[in-house]
Target: Nucleosome assembly protein 14
Amino acid sequence: MSDDVGSALPAAAAALSAEDRASLVNALKDRLEFLAGQHVDILDTLSSQVRKRVEVLRDLQSAHDELEAKFLEEKALLAAKYQKLYEPLYTKRYEIVTGVTEVEGITNEAIKDKEDKDTEEKGVPEFWLTVMNSNELLAEEITEHDEGALKYLKDIKCCLVDKPMGFKLEFYFDTNPYFKNSVLTKTYLLIDDLDGPFLDKAEGTEIEWYPGKCLTQKTTNKKPSNGSKNANPTTKTKISESFFKFFDPPQIPEEYDDLHDDDVSL
Model:
């Protein structure tokens, strides 16, 4: 680095955002580790005083890495602790939504009056479909023909995954005419660091569709044209837009530089 560049660096760094400065520090740290670990011959060209300073900097980085590992471990334990505290709330929600238990304030007389007028509705019908349609991002993924299947959705759970780190979404369905599965899952495996977790890969359940009920594919039969040698109709299958493609995520490229926006899926 020339003297001109070195003198300009502090002023340039001051103009950067906090996020940019963090990226710059990480880049410099990686460069230092690269030089120290891979090019010992470069260190040999330094004076003994400078080499000693670099060795101390390397020791400081090792101490930092130990603290970072401890921080990530304690963060995982804290997340697991609160996951257990959430469970009773989720259980109570499921029981109310599905009609397993009744909430206070609804008396037997009120239920009887309701029965006199029409058929009693248990719980909260189509609760999860309504919730999902109320979410801006999810609503964009749900098509009209998905709603018939999503009306059978009775619960959604999220649980943490260890080794490798991640979390799993579980979608519980009543018996329905669309697919055999009672539970559909989507698992996200993550890599964590101080800048926050980032996605390593995602895995989903293979849906066992009943014949003619697949919502992610559309099959059409085309009659042969007049004069065609092949008298049999041709069958074509094409991908259909559907929320249920959520459970068939694309593979994350090994090189993140190869990742395009079209490859990203929830």
About this structure: The longest helix spans residues 48-98. The first strand starts at residue 153 and ends at 161. The beta strands are 153-161, 166-173, 183-191, 198-204, 217-222, 234-239. Residues 1-15, 256-265 have pLDDT under 50 and may be disordered.
